[in-house]
Write a structure and sequence with these properties.
By secondary structure, the chain is mainly alpha-helical. The chain is built from five helices and no strands. It has one domain.
């Protein structure tokens, strides 16, 4: 689900359509795709709406100035997800048991 959720919450400089196409190519299950996209885009639009309602035009300027920070956070989340899924020590396989 993270492979669908993370691109869906990525800020707008990150194009979403290539991720949608890739999910089709890699045959992501329809339920996972729909739920991940709905939740991810819902979070993104809620956050942007909240900032707009709370701070007005200043929020737009803030978001536009923080593009690199947003991209760095999204990249860090992808790397963290990869490490958790692939590195054996994070999955509990790197420990040996002693009798």
């Amino acid at each position: 689900m993270a492979c669908v959720f993370l691109p869906a919450v990525a800020p707008f400089p990150v194009p979403f359509k290539p991720f949608v196409i890739a999910q089709g190519v890699f045959q992501v299950p329809l339920g996972t795709f729909v739920v991940g996209t709905f939740v991810g885009r819902g979070c993104l639009f809620f956050f942007e709406g909240f900032l707009g309602a709370r701070y007005g035009a200043a929020a737009k300027q803030f978001v536009m100035n923080q593009k690199l920070v947003s991209l760095a956070i999204a990249l860090a989340l992808v790397v963290l997800f990869f490490l958790i899924r692939r590195v054996p020590i994070f999955r509990g396989e790197g420990h040996s048991q002693r009798d």
